[in-house]
Design a protein that fits this description.
Elements (H helix, E strand, L loop, with lengths): L7 H8 L1 H22 L7 H4 L2 H18 L10 H17 L6 H29 L5 H20 L1 H7 L15 H24 L7 H9 L4 H10 L3 H4 L2 H25 L9 H34 L2 H18 L6 H18 L2 H7 L7 H8 L1 H17 L8 H20 L11
Helix pairs in contact: 1-9, 2-6, 2-7, 2-9, 2-13, 2-14, 4-6, 4-11, 4-18, 4-19, 5-6, 5-9, 6-18, 7-14, 7-16, 7-17, 8-9, 13-14, 13-19, 13-20, 14-16, 15-16, 15-17, 15-20
């Protein structure tokens, strides 16, 4: 099928739901470690408590991808039912999260939150490949990267915005209290994902399968997991080559969400006490740092389509990863919160490419009929490294990293530099798949 070129605002609408998804992820990334600390977790235990998210993604995304490949409804289409269901479940988890009263409750709700967000996000990746011709896919994925920056920026600015309205940003006298600004941030996040996903669902149509494809789907008797396993075994070369790039990228990135706010509190405000005003300042500036990070993601994502046309995507990606690695490594020498903001600007450049360039490389190298399942399997390249991070970091945090959260950020920097090296080693593949 020869896909027609879409107008800019059509691509905008079909990607707009990403804004709400990334608002939710931004809240999670900026606030889960402080929430765990408010509830009494030790710093070294924090990566273990983050495990719920990647394990859920490991299980859910390939299944949802395979299911959505075989879904078709005349009214709702192929991917949009998953957008709607995931958005509703995500909003429920967001409303409940700030009322956590124990670590197990917060970790369980993170499981629900991350699982529901993954149900929504994976079909968004496949929708770009479904709807856009090859020459527009870099625009589609770059626009998704733009919404990553925009959504997470809004989430990260919530402490400043809410504080300006008099909402409390410091925990109460009880050390296990979660501040009011966290609660209101999550309530607003629940509303934002419902509204943004709704715009995509009701303004976007999907191409129906051909009669032959419908008959093939009806005749298909293989269980979902059999389809996933066979697809994994026959993984295209373009996908295999990205493994080490993704491994070192996603082993490193969780360290930012786990330890940025805590590092600023420790290095700048000289405290690890979650009941102190200095810790609250660290959380606030951690959110601001992630806002800066996402603003630069947003800005650099605008440049990515043109850069990808002029230069090989693997070199654009390598340069972006190296820039982010330098930003992280420099944090070992920072003593002021504004210095951290500069470092996070560099990391934001890497984030823009991380959220788009690998998908451009991948989308042209997998069979269109299996786009959903391969996008889901590709998510394993993200969650397996995260699981490796969260299992291993508690064992080295107090020894190799010296119990200093800033050292965790330096480790993240070296990981991105290694990922950049593997990006330069990518080779052109010879498999060509057409719709």
């Amino acid at each position: 099928m020869q896909k027609p070129k879409l107008k800019f605002w059509q691509i905008w609408n079909m990607s707009f739901g990403f804004l709400g998804i990334q608002y939710a992820f931004g809240l999670q990334q900026a606030n889960m470690s402080p929430i765990y600390r408010y509830l009494g977790a030790e710093e070294s235990e924090i990566p273990w408590l983050w495990l719920a998210g990647p394990i859920t993604g490991l299980l859910i995304q390939p299944v949802i991808g395979a299911m959505s490949d075989k879904t078709w409804n005349k009214k709702w289409g192929r991917r949009r039912p998953y957008f709607a269901i995931g958005a509703i479940l995500t909003s429920i988890a967001l409303v409940l999260m700030p009322y956590s009263t124990s670590l197990w409750m917060a970790a369980s709700l993170l499981w629900l939150l991350d699982g529901a967000a993954n149900v929504t996000m994976e079909p968004f990746r496949a929708l770009i490949a479904d709807k856009l011709p090859d020459e527009q896919r870099s625009i589609g994925y770059s626009l998704q990267s733009f919404f990553v920056g925009a959504g997470q920026t809004l989430a990260n600015l919530m402490p400043i915005v809410l504080a300006s309205f008099g909402v409390a940003t410091v925990a109460g006298a009880n050390s296990h209290d979660i501040p009011d600004f966290v609660k209101w941030s999550f309530f607003i996040g629940a509303a934002s994902i419902l509204v943004s996903i709704g715009i995509t669902v009701f303004t976007t149509t999907e191409y129906p399968p051909t009669p032959e494809e419908l008959e093939e789907q009806k005749a298909e008797k293989r269980p979902i997991f059999t389809d996933i396993l066979e697809s994994f075994k026959s993984m295209p070369k373009a996908m295999k080559q990205l493994w080490w790039v993704k491994f070192f990228t996603w082993y490193s990135l969780p360290l930012m969400w786990q330890y940025l706010a805590i590092a600023i509190a420790f290095r700048v405000f000289h405290t690890s006490d979650p009941t102190s005003s200095g810790f609250a300042e660290g959380v606030k500036w951690g959110n601001i740092g992630l806002a800066v990070f996402n603003v630069f993601c947003l800005l650099f994502s605008v440049l990515l389509p043109e850069l990808s046309r002029k230069f090989q995507p693997k070199y654009v990606h390598a340069l972006a990863l190296t820039t982010g690695g330098i930003g992280f490594i420099a944090m070992n020498f920072f003593t002021h919160q504004y210095q951290y903001m500069g470092g996070m600007a560099l990391v934001g450049i890497a984030w823009a490419s991380i959220m788009s360039t690998p998908y451009v490389i991948l989308s042209n190298g997998v069979p269109p009929k299996k786009m959903g399942v391969y996008m889901g399997i590709f998510n394993m390249f993200i969650v397996v490294p995260q699981i490796a991070n969260m299992v291993s970091i508690p064992f080295i945090y107090n020894s190799l990293l010296g119990g200093d959260p800033a050292h965790a950020l330096v480790l993240a920097g070296f990981g991105l530099v290694v990922a950049a090296y593997f990006s330069t080693r990518l080779r052109a593949h010879h498999e060509v798949f057409k719709s």
